[in-house]
Amino acid sequence: AYDLSVYRLTSGTFPTGTWVKDTLPSTINTVAQEDQPFFTGDKLIFSRDGNIVYHSYQPTNGICGNTFTQNDCWGPEVILVGANGNSTASQIFAVGEPTVANYDGKKYLYFVFVESRSVQNFPGIVDYNTDPAFVEIP
Question: Which residues of the chain have pLDDT under 70?
Answer without folding.
Answer: 1-2, 61-62, 85-90, 118-126
